[in-house]
Amino acid sequence: MRTEHDGGQHDLRHHGDAEVRDDGAALTDLAVNVRADTPPPWLLEVIAGSLGGLAAYPDGRAARAAVAGRHGLPTERVLLTAGAAEAFVLLARALRARHPVVVHPQFTEPEAALQDAGHVVDRVLLRQRDGFRLDPALVPEDADLVVIGNPTNPTSVLHPAALITELARRGRTLVVDEAFMDAVPGEREALAGRTDVPGLVVLRSLTKTWGLAGLRIGYVLADPGTIAELERAQPLWPVSMPALVAAEACAAPRALAEAAHAAHRVASDRAHLVAGLREFGPDGLYVAEPAEGPFVLVRLERAPAVRRHLRDLGFAVRRGDTFPGLGKEWLRLAVRDRVTVNRFLQALDRAVTLAAG
Fold first, then answer.
1. N or C: which end of the chain has fewer CB within 10 A?
2. Strand pairing partners for 168?
3. pTM confidence score
């Protein structure tokens, strides 16, 4: 582990959608972590049914109550946001942190938001040789804001909840990004719904499992005082009526059952992908394991060239060098169905051969 400040060497604003933005229609997308078969038709119907009410200002009370009920919390512990990305901006602007620390490699938007708000951010860099696993002792004791993902994007590590809660302190805000937790069977190691951890702030996104990245809907779970501070930093009516309707629908028992089924399917498809990647051998391709999210992190020689050849062969994958703690030899692969994975593995074999010259 080491700590560092940003020296400008990482593009914190680069996200997976950039890999498919221009010629994405011609590419099979393994760069973006949104589940491929979403939104489901029933959810599209619910959203479409809200369009007749667009003349009215959004009223988030029903959606807020639904999300609160889904986690067994009172409504004053819930804040709906325009995706988890807005929540990071609100935290950076509303909380008066003196020593913020972000545990990397992880989603870069929290650090970018903190920097934009004028904070000097320290990094705790987890290492490959440790399996990118958290050691709470690595986080400086005087850190009053700590951000960590679980399961972590891009490493796909699922940290034990008990280990994360060791980071909690009186006077410290502990932000846990659980954007991909509903893709973990049983949501084991989740902290959403916990009220016994001091300073805990949990972020959730509905864009990944439900394919709503274009709609922008997520939420924050925290103590009522923190929620009130974040809400004061929000503009009026920050979440649209279609997004509110989607949030309410995705918290319903039917949706939760469907998400649970999808999580098991993702786990099975991920196992198939990892097994195929292992066939390349440890000298040719390293897989970060155990992977627990809907994506897999790999390291291989000549990764930039492999990525370019994969594009020529019709596949987009996520470059890893924009994540602090990783370099140009890393790629992140979204989990897809077995037919797509088999096609990708064939293309990867060809791309590796071409890159080797």
1. C
2. none
3. 0.94
